[in-house]
Amino acid sequence: MANAPLKKIIGFYCRFTPSYSKIGFNFRKLFWRPLKGNFAGQVWLVTGGSEGIGGSAAHSAVAGGATVICVARSIDKLRAFAQSTPHPEKVILEVADFSLQQDIHDLVARLAQRGLKIDVLVNNVGIQKKDQVITKEGVETSFATNILGHYLLTRDLLANKLIAHNGTVIEVSSGGMYNHPMVVNDLNITGPGYLGVRAYGLAKRAQMMMTTAWREKFAGTERRFYAMHPGWVNTASVNRSMPRFVAILHSVLRSHPQGADTIVWLAERRPEQKRAEAIWFDRKERPAHIYQHTPLSKDTPQDVIRTLERGLLPAARQPLSAATSAQAAPAVPASLATGAARSA
Fold this sequence. Notes:
Strand order of the largest sheet: 3-2-1-4-5-6
Distance between the termini: 47 Å
Number of helices: 13
């Protein structure tokens, strides 16, 4: 919104601040029943789980008795997160860079080697870059991290039967999707036409559409697939990418637990979704579109999946098989493990 007219900026904040900030959260929670928070016996996998919204969701899972596989790029942040929980022995630390397909491939191989069944997968990792950055694998970083990595991880976990038959997959999307109709040909856009906020918004809409594709594929099973919107949360990532936004709204931005609340609620309640395509926000199913121009796109969830498949490197286009994963899995260094990891 850096170059948007003042009238549009004022209209944006007036329309959405009462709902997406902690003002809306605090009002709606007056009508909510408390969560039981009992996740004993479950295994969660949370990407970007060492801090922020993902860290808060992971913390709730550990507090509720779950074993949590926490994935992030920094081993130091992972160790600090584990020690911040009431049960560090229930945290399994995994290091992976979700902008790199090879890292995700290796992660799935290690998870297959562990033999754990995942009850709740939270695809939370995400970034917003103002400038175009290309990964060493030749992929635009926002596309690689915010959607392609999510797809590759979920696809390969499902292919290897590492997600329980009644497991739940939760995509952490964003209200940043609302202003963008899907244009699949621009998901991995590079060159002069690149605009960071648009790359982010398209990836976030793609997350919701990908979730629709998973729901269609696994219709009739006990698995659940959701996309959720955490609201406006005061995270380190938002501070880095949107400093003016934070400066204006600092006093009303949501806390990490408030942003993670719907993740935890979905994991516990696993509600039926009525719409084919929807996003969950503050414990309620919401429409996929709020502007008239965004439903005009002709691109479908299956178009998104085909685009994601084309974005994969040749080595990743076939899901890692259970037969080869044990051979492919690198040894897990003892230095990356805490209690649960050592006994897994």
